[in-house]
């Protein structure tokens, strides 16, 4: 792998991790500095959101508080488009509105980074399955 490509992959990972860290504060305005014009966010359940302020508002309804424990951040160059795809995975931890804590809620966030800015993200996690299980509606035990 060339040094320039390695640098591009590392920079894309840095951009994503910084964005996520600011989003967890939450600092939607700070996080938005890492987004391109025309940014697209597809949140859990296929919800389309405009940016970090929307996801922070959504999370404030679903959780008393929530943070991410990063396990891995991987990046791959897309030679066809020139973009870098970044995959950040780990566990959500926090507290449900009823005060019950959690720490093993798996997530993966998939980003597209172009010219140092995030153009798209897709957010996936186990929250809906956990909530179904807590409500006694899960088809099988977790």
Q: Counting H and I runs of at least 4 residues, what is the number of helices?
A: 4
Percentage of residues in helical conformation: 25-40%
Q: Estimate the mean pLDDT confidence.
A: 96
Unreliable residue stretches: none
**What is the radius of gyration computed over CA atoms, rounded to a whole number of angstroms?**
16 Å
The CATH architecture comes to: Roll
Biggest sheet layout: 6 strands, mixed
Number of domains: 1
Order of helices and strands: HHEEHEEEEH
CATH class membership = Alpha Beta
Strand order of the biggest β-sheet? 2-1-6-5-4-3
Distance between the termini: 41 Å
Stated plainly, the CATH topology is called Nuclear Transport Factor 2, Chain: A
What global shape is seen? Answer: globular
Number of beta strands: 6
Class by SSE composition: alpha+beta
Assess the beta-strand content as a share of residues.
35-45%
């Amino acid at each position: 792998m060339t040094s320039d490509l390695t640098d591009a992959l590392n920079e894309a990972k840095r951009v994503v991790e910084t964005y996520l860290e600011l989003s967890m504060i939450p600092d939607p305005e700070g996080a938005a500095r890492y987004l391109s014009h025309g940014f697209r966010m597809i949140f859990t359940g296929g919800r389309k959101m405009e940016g970090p302020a929307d996801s922070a508002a959504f999370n404030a309804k679903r959780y008393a508080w929530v943070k991410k424990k990063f396990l891995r951040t991987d990046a791959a160059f897309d030679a066809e488009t020139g973009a870098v795809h970044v995959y950040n995975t780990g566990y959500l931890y926090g507290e449900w509105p009823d005060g019950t804590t959690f720490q093993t809620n798996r997530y993966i966030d998939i980003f597209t980074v172009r010219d140092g800015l995030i153009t798209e993200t897709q957010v996936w996690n186990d929250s809906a399955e956990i909530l179904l299980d807590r409500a006694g509606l899960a088809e099988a035990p977790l």
